[in-house]
Amino acid sequence: MKKCALHNLGCKVNSYETQVMQQMMEEAGYEIVEFGKEPADVYIINTCSVTNIADRKSRQMIHKAKKLNPDAIVAATGCYVEAAGDNVDEDVDIAIGNNEKSRLVEILDSYFSDVCEEKHTHADINKVTDFDDMFMEAPMEHTRAYVKIQDGCNRFCTYCIIPYVRGRIRSRQRDDIFNEVSSLARKGCAEVVLTGIHLSSYGLDMGGDALELIDIIEMINGIEGIKRIRLGSLEPRIVTEEFAKRLAACEKICPHFHLSLQSGCDATLIRMNRTYTTGEFAEGVKILRRYFDNPAITTDVIVGFPGETEEDFEETLEVVRKVRYDSAFTFIYSKRTGTPAAAMENQVPEEVVKERFDRLLAEVQAISAQVCGRDVHTVQEVLVEEPDSHVEGLVTGRMSNNTIVHFPGGKELIGKIVKVYLEESKGFYYMGSLVD
Q1: How far apart are CA 232 and CA 258, in angstroms?
Q2: Which of 26, 78, 323, 405 is the most exposed place for a label (fewest CB within 10 A)?
């Protein structure tokens, strides 16, 4: 029996695909071992390329796999592999394109039988029109599971390489989604997280009277056994009165919404090729707060985009102060070769970007510490996920707004939604006690 170790980098879509690939390898007879804990015969690295740092981490993990066992086969897949093409790292024995992940076992079998001597197995991502369907057999985290319902992106933001490595939008068929989520529910999964490269564009490639994202959410809301539905990143303009009204009618929806801002300056948004204004973004937040009681609002912000002035940056800070995000993923602009932004004039000096980033991060963290403590001294429903990794006798759970809670309890609580009194806010998590 060959041993296989997998390592995931990047987004929730990658996480879903890595978990499915692990199940595929188990079904094919491989013994799954923890990456780095013991040598494996096959290493599978699901890479990321969203930033230069992600590229570097992907290469580092490929090198690490080869060092762990020089005789092992290193199979690399994901966005770094797609972007690198024939220039993929020399330690990669097999390079597998994004739309070939479902063929992983077949590709490995061919490689081991000497039928396939090709190092690269890529479909032309720009010509791919079908959703590369993968099926999650069982929840990997017992209580929650990512469910990929969409792939690809048609937006072509000027800084982003993802449309070039993931291809055009492709939506998963309704019946396939229903079957997977129903199967997960039967096997004890309490929460599903709907993911996609551009989740809001679900159904746009199906034409005519195609389903929209809200239709899929309503369908899953009716599946017995599923207790919570959480959404991945949403395009701000999808949040209309109609969307929010229908969303609020789904009692299983988690009031946790990730709306990508990227910049609080309209001039910068235009250069980014983002298709909304800061005013439209603010209106979307207002709508969500009208239909949901204290929803968690999270976002992404890029600092140092080409042409960004101090005044532009101050506008971003002002939006952050007004919206008061529960949390924000903050990034320094990463120059990606081949994207329009890489050729733009007025690239912001590195020292200026770093200073602005530090100011933004301090603002975000200060606001987040205040906002995330709003529920202290109240009783909240918590989905228990696992034993606490630091303190024996505690368990760790998650509120519907995605805030983590630690409290005394045993393994018998895992997978259950229980009432917890939130005794103390630690800024980004709570300490609590179980309510009978």
Answers
A1: 7
A2: 26
